[in-house]
Hints:
This protein is an alpha/beta fold. The protein folds into two domains: 2-138, Response regulator (Rossmann fold, 3-Layer(aba) Sandwich); 167-356, Hypothetical protein af1432 (Orthogonal Bundle), CATH 1.10.3210.10. Helix content is 59%, strand content 7%. The chain is built from 14 helices and five strands. Helix 3 packs parallel to helix 4 and helix 13 (319-328) packs antiparallel against helix 14 (336-356).
Amino acid sequence: MSANIDILSNASILVVDDTPANLSILSAMLKEKGYEVRPVPNGKLALQAARNKLPNLILLDINMPEMDGYEVCEQLKSDQVLRNIPVIFISALSETIDKVKAFSVGGIDYITKPLEFEEVQARVETHLKLQHLMTNLENTVAEQVKEISESQIATIVAMAKLTQSRDDSTGKHLDRIQAYCRVLTKKLSENPKFTHLLDEANIEMISRASTLHDIGKVGIQDNILLKKGRLTSEEYEIMKQHSITGARTLEKVKKYYPRNQFVNTGIEIARSHHEKWDGTGYPDGLSKTDIPLSARIMSVADVYDAIKSKRCYKAEMPHMECYKIILNGNGSFFDPDIVNAFHDTHMELYEIWNDMH
C-alpha cells in the first residue's frame, strides 16, 4: 500500500482548461489529494509546460480557442519525447462522435462535465497506477534484452580474442583498437557532417564492434598468418580472404539475431575495414562513402596500431612517423574527415598505445 501512496503523491498532473473557474476547482481537488498540479489555460502553454517538465498525466479540455484539445493531443502524440504521456479528456461534449475522436487522436479516457470529483479521482488514480506498471514492465523487458545482448556480445568477443591471440603476443591489440575507435568516433561526432549519425549509443557500438574486425583470421593457416617474411602474391590473396570469412561468420550469427546492432556493425567492419577511400582496397573495391562509416573509422585505427606495433615481421615504429603515414594517406587510403579527427587526437592514441602495449 505504501508503494502506491508514493507513486500517487509524487505524480505530476498537467491540467489544461481555458475556463479559470474550472481550472481552479479541478486543481484544488487534485492538490488536496497530494498531487503536484500544474494548471495552464490554453493548448500552446500546455505543450510548452509538458516539454519543460514531463508530467505523469494530462487532463485536457477540448473546447479551447486557437488550439483545441484534439490538436493539442495530436501534437503530443507526434512528439517523440511527449508521446507516451497519458491524456484524459475532460469536456462538456457528450456525443459519441466526440468521444470517438478523442480516443482516435490518442486519449486514454474521457470524463464528461460537470465533473464528479470521485470519478475524476478514481480515473486519475487508475491511470497513474497503469502508467507505473507499464513503465516497470518496459524497464524489466529492456533489462532482460540487455542481459541477453551482453551475453551474446561477450561470447562473440571471446571468440575474436581467441582468434587474435594467434598473432598478437601481448593480447592487447583488440583493447587498443576499441579505445582508438572510441576516441576517433567521439571526435568525429563533433563534425556537423556526422553529428546526426554518431550519438553516444553509436559511438559505443562502433568501438565495441571494432573488436570483430579480424575475426576471419580464424580461417588463415599459421604458416601464412605468422610468416616473418613478406607474403608471396598467392599468400597475400589467401590473407585477404579473412575479411570475407569474418563477415560470413558474423552473418551466420545474424540469422539468429537479425536486429542485433553489434553483429550488424561487426559485419560492416569485418568485411570493409581494408577498403580504401580511392577504391583500391579489398574485398569489394568500394570507395568514399560507399564504404560503411564504421569501417572507415576502423581503417585508420587498425593501420595506426599495425604500423606502430612490433610484429614478428617488423620493428616498432616511432609515433610521429606513424602520424605522418596516416596524414599522407589523406584522401587516398583514408576518409579525409577521419584523418582530421586523427590529427586532432593522435596524442591520445599514442597514450593509449603506451598504456596498453
